[in-house]
Amino acid sequence: MSTTHTRNAARTMMSPAVILLLAWMLVPLAMTLWFSFQNYSLLSPGNESWAGFNNYKYFLTDPAFSEALVNTLLLVGGVLCITVIGGTLLALLLDQPMFGQGIVRLLVIAPFFVMPTVSALVWKNMFMNPTNGLFAFFAKSLGVTPIDWLGHHPLLSIILMVSWAWLPFATLILLTALQSLDSEQIEAAEMDGASSISRFFHIVVPHLARAATVVILIQTIFLLSIYAEIFVTTGGGPGNASTNIPWLVYRQSLLSYDVGVGSAGGIVAVILANIVAIFLMRMVGKNLDL
Amino acid sequence: MGSITLKKVAKRFGDIEVIPPLDLAINEGEFVVFVGPSGCGKSTLLRLIAGLEDVSGGVIEIDGADATSLPPAKRALAMVFQSYALYPHMSVRKNIAFPLKMAGMDKASIDEKVNKAAETLNLASYIDRRPGQLSGGQRQRVAIGRAIVREPAAFLFDEPLSNLDAALRGNMRIEISELHHKLDTTMIYVTHDQVEAMTMADKIVVLNSGRIEQVGSPMDLYREPANVFVAGFIGSPSMNLITGNAATEEGATTIGVRPEHFHLSMSEGKWQGTVGVSENLGSDTFLRVEVDGIGTLTARADGEFPASLGDTVYLTPDGERMHRFDASGLRMVR
Amino acid sequence: MARAVTLNRRLFNTGLAWTLGLLIFFPILWTILTSFKTEAEAIALQPALFDFEWTLANYQEVNSRSNYPRFFMNSVIIALGSTLLGLLIAVPAAWAMAFVPSKRTRGILMWMLSTKMLPPVGVLVPIYLLFRDSGLLDSRIGLVFVLMMVNLPIIVWMLFTYFREIPGEILEAARMDGASMKSEILYVLTPMALPGIASTMLLNVILAWNEAFWTLVLTTTKAAPLTQFIASYSSPEGLFYAKLSAASTMAIAPVLILGWFSQKQLVRGLTFGAVK
């Protein structure tokens, strides 16, 4: 619904964003793909040669890969479970009438604004440290042996840290969705004789489903690429116990200087992300009304 | 200044032909109303004239010059939108001054023109407020003010009164008509409300599915609708359109009788019927009468007419004012 | 829904919500408190909540020893620079998609969203090598560009959802009033969309400020922002909790405050307008 003139102008104005994003997506991706078929080490530059699928074979058969894959799924799944369930409960609580709701909201949302390196270091040192951490202090006060969180349960520790950082986001979105629920709908259901439990399951839950989908989509995008928390806490260890795919790729390419294998890992990460993305976009595509 | 000629103007959206090629001449100073049911293409036609849409074919001439490919800004037309489309971040004064500012006019002349427009439209008392603080009627005036300062060749109105309540709509109708007399500028006015068309227009263009059904003065359309569509669309309550035996008797496929062109009687007449629900407006009563073999007819009676639900009444159409249409729906000449 | 709720119920809600809220906020509070302790108190066997010798020594030491202002400036430049550059590219694009939609608009928007799905490690190697070869490694300009690209889809989406709420008739009115494309965007669209543009900016500054993949991978010293500054505390040397806390507090305070102001926009921005 417009003239050719405005449509042309629109195309011109859209092109910088589209071209940049297209280049940002395609150029490095094509390079990664190319490198992934090369024997290419940063330690001996100039000695590149065609490697075929060797890099993929190496990366995929490395026991670290399967561990990293499982860790990635546990990390994403664990954080999603904690934040979506916790966020729903918290949102339901915050939606109730109370004193100082605004301030509680501010308290709850705060962790989201803490940069990942800070939150990871604070948790690692001041809470989870087995000698000086606050958790150790509470354990000792109760007469229990303090847990060496990052030493013995590295992945769980990281799941907890990341959940802390993302719980506010889930809560805030679910709360916003709750507050947008038309009160007349609830009242109508009440007039129709629905009990508070059936009101919750038949009206509130379906209404939240859309918001929850969005929470899952957005969080998955970010959780699939968790990096900083591992970088400053466990370094992927002990062993590979807290190595996820991004960390594995980083280690291969920039710590072991093996560009070929690192790139193959990068491509694997892209494929995995795409598999997840296809499901998520299907789910969300319907929910984003345009 | 202000004649607009459409020659074979057509509009397609993709494969869908919204407006088949049509010709229309609008004379200088005329008040022309495009009327038709929603989706008939009247707003699209207005937007084609405004230049907000490209024509798919044909030529639009403004004051004799080809304006088909001119951008809206260059057509010297002003438009009042359905939603008023006031700039919410500007005061009333700035809103009205905006087109002049865009035209590069100096500050003193802008002020002078804005003040004059404010006086004409009686909006001086709220000239420093923002649109958000105004009532619907006041916003409407500002939108008109913004249109008149440009002294355009023609004004385009796109259903300007549809967001106002009934009482205000009546007042604004009169104000716009008065404005037309004062300015003597061409106005093209789009509406789906045939009352607005009847009361304001010099010339009504009835549109249906993008086609022009009839062009004429309000009374022409009322007296001699060119076809069944116009007959049913113009006039309120709408004309009774009767098919079947009653029409065949008159040598037509369809006959039309306006509610006000029946003679009513409690005792005798041409058609006997039973009174259904009637609407009493005080001055008039509109009776819905169930007539055997014909169907439900609407008839206007005097406000004090004694019939009530279930009574038997007799209707006699005024033969002089009966309209006859042929099988293709066209008016038959007597 | 005006509904009578008993005072007891309300008090119970209040108590529970405040307890949970404080619990969630506690790590931040604890960090801030620790930053004012001496190192000895920070790891005392009996940690004190408020009852300790308050000191600013940690802040002074962090400032003098690790050149905090430089990291801070890098963060500011990178966050603001990438956001402003992103807005410059995104405003016209969002204008086009919101006001001149075509059959492809939805597809383009979904595609932009999908570029966010591309894991950074998938392009880590080439970006690293390209940066190394063009001397952009450890440069602010390089990071500004990368973070702009990373956040561009979010900026476009946010602006799009704000622009879409502006009625197209207003822009058409401007066109009828003789405004050129430039005047239309400058005098009509931008002022009307200003609140939306401001919140888009705020959210993206926060996201860029906290970005911790590219900033860690592509910088070492010269262009290193606060994420890198804090990461340098990951290998502890002696007593350092109080100093870590002071550094952390300084790193998070600016965005925490910005974030509190923009929490409503956060929902809209990060959910691509799907939840309002």
Question: Would you give an account of this structure?
Answer:
The complex is a heterotrimer of chains A (290), B (334) and C (276). Chain A has helices at 4-35, 54-61, 63-94, 101-109, 116-127, 134-141, 149-152, 154-179, 183-191, 196-223, 228-232, 245-255, 259-285; strands spanning 38-39, 49-50. Chain A is mostly helical. Chain A has one domain: MetI-like (MetI-like fold, Orthogonal Bundle). A two-stranded antiparallel sheet of chain A has the order 1-2. Chain B has two domains: 4-230, P-loop containing nucleotide triphosphate hydrolases (Rossmann fold, 3-Layer(aba) Sandwich), CATH 3.40.50.300; 241-325, Nucleic acid-binding proteins (OB fold (Dihydrolipoamide Acetyltransferase, E2P)), CATH 2.40.50.140. In chain B, strand 15 and strand 16 (295-302) form a beta hairpin. In chain C, 73% of the residues lie in helices and 0% in strands. Chain C contains 13 helices and no strands. The mean pLDDT of chain C is 84.
- Kindly report the greatest chain-chain contact and the residue count on each side: A-C, 106 and 99 residues
Q: Any idea of the CATH topology of chain A?
A: MetI-like fold
Q: SSE string of chain A, helix = H, strand = E?
A: HEEHHHHHHHHHHHH
CATH class category label of the largest domain in chain C: Mainly Alpha
Terminus-to-terminus distance of chain A: 16 Å
Looking at the chains present, what oligomeric state does this protein adopt? Answer: heterotrimer
Highlighted features:
heterotrimer; B: alpha+beta; OB fold (Dihydrolipoamide Acetyltransferase, E2P); 2 domains; six-stranded mixed sheet; five-stranded antiparallel sheet; 18 strands; globular; C: 276 residues; mainly alpha
Quick structural gist:
Chain B is of the alpha+beta class and 334 residues long. Chain B is built from nine helices and 18 strands.
Q: Which helices and strands occur, and which strands form pairs?
A:
The complex is a heterotrimer of chains A (290), B (334) and C (276).
Chain A: H1 4-35, E1 38-39, E2 49-50, H2 54-61, H3 63-94, H4 101-109, H5 116-127, H6 134-141, H7 149-152, H8 154-179, H9 183-191, H10 196-223, H11 228-232, H12 245-255, H13 259-285
Antiparallel strand pairs in A: 1-2
Chain B: E1 4-13, E2 16-26, E3 31-35, H1 42-50, E4 57-62, E5 65-66, E6 77-80, H2 92-102, H3 107-121, H4 136-148, E7 154-158, H5 166-183, E8 186-191, H6 194-200, E9 203-208, E10 211-216, H7 218-223, H8 228-233, E11 240-243, H9 245-249, E12 254-257, E13 262-265, E14 271-280, E15 284-291, E16 295-302, E17 312-317, E18 323-325
Parallel strand pairs in B: 3-8, 3-9, 6-7, 7-8
Antiparallel strand pairs in B: 1-2, 1-4, 4-5, 9-10, 11-12, 12-18, 13-17, 14-15, 14-17, 15-16
Chain C: H1 7-34, H2 39-42, H3 57-66, H4 68-99, H5 105-115, H6 120-133, H7 140-163, H8 168-176, H9 181-210, H10 214-218, H11 226-231, H12 241-261, H13 263-270
